[in-house]
Amino acid sequence: MRRFTIPKLRWIIAGLLLAVTMINYTDRLTLSVLIGDVRKDLTLSETDYSHLVSLFLAAYAIMYAVSGWVVDRVGTRHGFTIFVGAWSVAQMLHGLAWNKWSLGGFRFLLGLTEPGSFPAAVKAVREWFPADQRAIGVGIFNTGSALGAALAAPLAATLGIRYGWRAAFVVTGALGIVWLLFWLVIYQPPQRNRWLSRAEAAALGPLMQEAPSGPAAPRPDWKRVFLSRPCLTLMLARFLADPVIYFVIFWLPAYLQKERGFDLTMIGRYAWIPYVFGGFGYVVGGWLSGKLLRAGWSLCRARKVALAAGAALLPTAILAPLVPNAALAIAATSVVVLGHAIWVANLLTLPADLFPGTEVGTASGFTGMAGSVGGILANLGTGYIVSSFSYLPAFIAAGLLHPLACLLLWRLLPPRVFEQGAAR
For residues 341 and 411, is the Cβ–Cβ distance under 8 A? Predict the structure, then answer.
């Protein structure tokens, strides 16, 4: 009897990863879109909002490192099941909040459960995509962050206007439960996947010979991973650069309301635009380094050039608060998100380049933790700066951090580090 298979299965899995990343960002951004109504209902100040964002990021930082280790231990399939199910419940609980601290508690729970998606997604790409396709695989799933951010504004605003902000959290939280049904049917690593055709298995080549992670796999040596030069360097880079996208995600709607006179309807109509450019950038960033690899460039050079191309666009952020109208401010922010997306498509690929499959989740978790710590500190500073001064200093910092991080990566990750990673 002929076995039923799914054609181009790894690209369908990439689509699932895109969808879950989209849901992840939709859920986390719902609060920033509806913060005007939430603040009025729960009597919150700008400082209170910065505290809520910091609670989310603190939990995110704590759990990012742990979630990567968990994913390496239980495997990609079960890791996603645990974290997506938990964050969907946490998102729906937001609709029950009655004051700052109850909302802060639900926000903290969301922060504990959402970060597991990213080490798991990088690990899935490592399991299914060879080196010259990894960055495009990472770019595809990261496109979900742009699409989720773009979807969050009109979806949350529409739900908030028609049914109230509480209903918006319940509906967006339910999306993750629906996604899990598809995930559990389709996903297993390639060595165990019943839907994988023989032709695609042959195309995966050496990946089919690797032992899949899970409870039976060797435990990752997290101390060695943490103290390794690649991990520490990537942690530093994300500590510097990740706060920029957190600033855009959590503060752009508030900036448009305070400085450009937007109401909730206008935010729903226009705040999604920068993230469309981000979606394009994730794909372009992944395609660029893959194209350079296929043209004969070394892994080190291809990744670094693509990173530099993205970082070079970030100084445009400095223009956003200086231009005379909101349309130009959104245009400048769109270039920022485009550059960050090109950067991220390659930066998040580096753990898969530099670590073996059984340690990819752990390494990704540590680097994400560092990015979240940077985001916490930057967010607290942003809350103080915009309350006491203006948004201009925050936009200046957003324009300079990626180029600085890029210079450090070029200096601290020489070709021999990539050669050692490829040999593992």
Answer: no
C-alpha to C-alpha distances, 417 to 73, 88, 286, nearest whole angstrom:
25, 39, 21
Output b/e per residue, 319-338; b: 16+ Cβ within 10 A.
Answer: bbbeeeebeebbbbbbbbbb
Give the number of other Cβ atoms within 10 Å of residue 267's Cβ: 25
DSSP assignment of 189-241? -TTT-TT--HHHHHHHGGGGGSPPPSTTSPPP-HHHHHHSHHHHHHHHHHHHH
For the stretch 255-303, pLDDT in tens is 888 888 787 778 777 877 888 888 888 889 888 988 998 888 998 999 9
Percent of the chain residues past pLDDT 70, beyond the cut:
95
Spatial CA neighbour of 82 closest among 69, 94, 95: 69
CATH of region 9-188+220-423: 1.20.1250.20
Report the distance separating Cα 218 and Cα 96, nearest Å: 42
Q: Is 350 left (phi over 0), alpha (psi -120 to 50) or beta?
A: alpha
pLDDT, tens digit (0-9, with 9 covering 90-100), for 38-85: 888 888 877 788 788 888 878 888 888 888 888 888 889 999 999 999
Using N-to-C axis directions, what is the helix angle for 273-294 and 131-163, rounded to 10°? 170
Q: Is 314 exposed, middle or buried (0-12, 13-18, 19+ CB in 10 A)?
A: buried
Record the pTM. Answer: 0.75
Phi-psi region of 297 (alpha: psi -120 to 50; beta: other; left: phi over 0): beta
Mean pLDDT by 10 residues, the chain (424 residues): 76 93 91 85 81 84 84 89 95 91 92 90 87 83 82 87 92 94 91 82 74 62 86 94 85 80 77 83 88 90 94 92 87 92 90 83 87 83 80 89 94 85 57
- What single DSSP character describes residue 33? H
| Radius of gyration (C-alpha) of the chain in whole angstroms | 21
E strands, 75-125, in order: none
